[in-house]
Fold these 4 entries.
Entry 1:
Amino acid sequence: MPALQVRHSTSTHIEAHTDELLDWDLRYDQLDCGRFEGRFTDIRCEGLQIFQETTTRRVRQRGHLPPGSFSMGTMLAGEGSLHVNGRSVAHDTLIAVQGQELDLCTPPHCTLAGMVVDTSLLHNAAAGRPDLGTLLHGQTLQAVMAPAPTLVALRALLQAALALAQRQPEALQAPGVQRHLRDELLWHAVQALSSAGPATEPQRGHSRKQLVDRACELMLAPTEVPPTLIEVCARLGVSPRKLLYCFKDVLGQNPATYIKAVRLNGVRRDLASLHATVLDVAARWGFWHFSHFSADYKRLFGELPSETLRRQRGSSAVTLRH
């Protein structure tokens, strides 16, 4: 059996945190104000990954996990609600993802723990359980309510493995320990999934998320003059009141606040990847009043855009020298 790998990382910038996710193709947008701190623990053995992630700020995570995998996660801590695919869910919810875009809004000081397992391994563990068909086949992102005993047992096993990786990682290297851990996690995962039920009303949440996604497309489309909220509502055929309710339900924020945060996150990513001035990048994202832009940027991220640019170019220079 291949050697088990254990990684721990601590980051003080959201872009550095996402770099630690390796083969997870995710983009993070910071949605509330303050300096970001992130921690990530990653245990990998054949066919299985166990993870724990802590983020201090409210974040929207969107993207995909590795192909051919089935992912499960649960929130261990957080100052507020977790939104899954546009629906607010309780803390005791289990998130199951296979082959579909992951879309989470996590609250401040959130800790998530879970596992990513090869789909074939989970199918073998669930053999003879036709009640799992809707979860294990096709492309799904579901928030489900598992009975408390099964969810508590799964969480306890995840946390025990993560704690051992922190204290005594060499204890996880024995092939027998790896097989036992993997089989026990698969067994508990199947038990939790087989007795779980929907956590929300899927249809209502889906229609509201579709409306919010379409509104975001219109407001973030490249154009010299971004449409106003009134114009967006007219294009979508909805009232401003309804659009506000949908944004609050799906993302936990009003449209103007969310769109400004996404645009500021876009500036931050471009400052790390483009050879351009702060003014050019800000204009690219529709910010024309530079002093207001700088103040909004510092309020959200805790540093001026010029500080972000200096730090990014400084780290790039160090990388080139090495």
Entry 2:
Amino acid sequence: MGAKFITRIIIDLVMTLLLLCAYAYRITGDTAHEWIGLCVFVLFIAHNGINRTWYKTIFKGTYTPRRAVMAACNAALVFTFAVVLITGLLQSRAVLAFLHLPGGMLLRQIHTTAAYWGLPLTGIHLGLHWGMFVKGTRKMLGVSGENSVRTKAAKVTAVLFAAFGVWASFDRDMFAKLFLGFSFDYWDENRPAILFFAALLSIMAVYVFVTYYTLKRAERQKESRFPLKLESRR
């Protein structure tokens, strides 16, 4: 497993964990929220730097349905993160406190809504690359085949976690968060903080697994329709 792949995994893992922490401003407080958010954007830039070759091939080659979805998702993610960064800085009370920026409710609404769109978009983005992650993990753990006990256990865990994510989507009222239904988030202090992070991670996981298994099913259907053509390409 190459150093570039390991570096990419570490950056993506840390960025995802910090992203979840950034949503927890009711738990961490505004100051920590701003600095965590800034760290997320630094890692986001690093992630794009490592994958800069993708930008060089945007206008090259043929666009398959998978590649078109990936390009649209990536563009949406870049736009969403840019909106979150700009609106966040304009409301800053810690990182840019010396500028005494006015902020405002509209900026807060846009910032929060754009941030929550980051959950499904990040999930879809991860789902599009999940096959590579699964192969790399299997190789690292020495697991071979989809019928091994470890693989089956992982699939059952994934299904249960995704089911929890469906419940969490309703519990966290994701529809309102995604479609300008609210400006202030809320978390009951009587609930354990770990449940908050587990809920957000499971919501993201729903989009990861739906995207991954949709692509996997599409590939299998394609193989069943054009077995000879696909075999010759291999």
Entry 3:
Amino acid sequence: MEEIQPALAWMQTEGYVMHSGKTIGQRHHQLGGTDAERAADLISMLQDEAISAIWFARGGYGTIRIMDLVEPFLTGPALPLMCGYSDLTVLHAYLNTQKKIPTLHSCMPVQFQALTSAARQSFLDCLKHEPLLYEMKPSEYNIHGEVVAPITGGNISILNSLLGTKYDWLADGWILFLEEVDEWLYHLDRMMQSFKLAGKLDKLKGVIVGGLTNMHDNEIPFGASAEGIIANYFKHLSLPVAFGFPAGHLDNNCSIPFGVPAKLTVNANGSSVNFSPLANSPGKVEE
């Protein structure tokens, strides 16, 4: 609980009414409570009409374990805005592409004190229905083009783990956001190969690549960087690809509205992403 207090205090100073989940601080081996406990905690929030957004405390592992329990409650026009990243990719990808429900790929309370001011402000801007514009420097791995489409995605390992399951993500017509942390380069190539063989990549409208943080190579090098590995899977496709987006396992983990239209532009001057506001964002609430 003490780890998330700075984030809660900050949100309260911004005018938001904050409530803590019952499983904050609980532990069941490596998880924050049993599957039943964590699912019940989330379901209670999903059913509470006074809650307009759920800001998940941290990632790690465990979301997929409770999906069968919570899935029947993941419906309706008043569903709270789901905010977080990393392991929350399970919820993002499923809600965005199968349920057509927007979510927010964002920072989490546990990392709040390390966040840049830009990352914090982007989170607030999304909650306040503000439009967002991100601009990135040119990258040798970029592929030029322009497209307007909704964005989904998240952590590459999590997206890979969903392939072939009933919570799999749909690719047709989407801009795919990708980020990864603490992974071996050959693992990354294997996951990208799985996306290709599953028919995901050739159905996309565009690709945005965020942080590829703390990646590892073997004693005998793989032969390409993390960026190079990803770029290799799109160089023969006619779609824009932008590298260097400020989101992922980074201190500058800026927020991305998922499931709403965005304009991706990539050219010789760099790349930009212009996001539409989230229609289901809660806005500022005075207590």
Entry 4:
Amino acid sequence: MTFDLTRRGMIAGAAISVPALGSIPSWAADKPQFAPVSSVLNGRVFGPDAPPNVFPDPDILALDPDAGIFVGHSSIVRLKTGFQWAEGPAWSGEGQYVVFSDVAGDVQYRYIWETGEITPFRRQSFNSNGNTFDFEGRQISAQHYLRRVVRWEHDGSMSVIADNYNGQPLNSPNDIAVHKDGSIWFTDPYYGSLLQEGHPDDGPGPLDPKGLASNRIGNGSAGIMGSRHQLRPPSIYRVDPSGRIDVVLEGKPGLVPNGIAFSPDYTKVYFVWGANIDVAEVKGGGIVGQRVFSDGMVDGVKCGFDGHRVDVAGNVWSGSTSVPGYMGVTVWNPAGKLIGRIRLPETCANLCFCGPKRDWLWMCASQSVYLVRVGIQGAAPG
């Protein structure tokens, strides 16, 4: 039996039983578990009623202390909960805020660093998912509902970066990364055609094979471009500074792209490809040498991947969609070796580095958002 360990697969497969949060999973029973009372493995409480933090935080696991990616006096803080599905955080260095999406809630939120407030930023967001900022400080968003990538200009206007390829509507742009050459790269899986995440197809589609979902109910999307799914392969695209859109990598059955990020020197690109993170060299507006970077196996447990970011040392920080004790964040060095983990009580979809020194980690995890200070800076921008 195979399991879809993407976060959507975990939700869809909710009937598959998982162990209670306060118990050690059977497949880890024979493995050493550092789990003091304050650990998520023993029902750690987050939020305003939580007991005082302890240092070092028992759910921050430095598997390679020499890597220097964590600090001993920082603890995981849950800032807010109650979202429908938190995704796509990005840091505005100029504005000093984190923007993130509640995809199913159809709202973008902003966390204002100076005050610690979380307020609605854009409502309706058109089921926006991934966000980033370019080298000029402009926000770029992937909108599931309208199947497009947009950029917010300094004067407050909005520009459409991509909404079709050779006249065919996109599926649902998901995650975005900007390259120093001025190009914008984005992934385009199928997830936005889910009823709760965007724009259902008009008739049968990849995620609604019987065509039961009506896009005429509720949001009135019938008639907009792309109401009829064009069955484009889920692909990775590159938008040239001239506006030309090229396919970087075309998906195949079982190989769907998701998160994407560049190495600090922009010579490599890391992207979720099916169940793994792959890496390839960036060359001539395309990629060469594609290979598996990480299969997500930790202690014999498959940790699914969603979004990721890269720090200044080239380490890849990825959200982990798995089971209790392995949900949260995994950190991989440039050679693909696991060097650290952050355990959370919820599946973590996406993350970003933030803060005035870019040395805090923001984590969008299911219904909640979390923050922790780390020992290294994230690569800019976004």
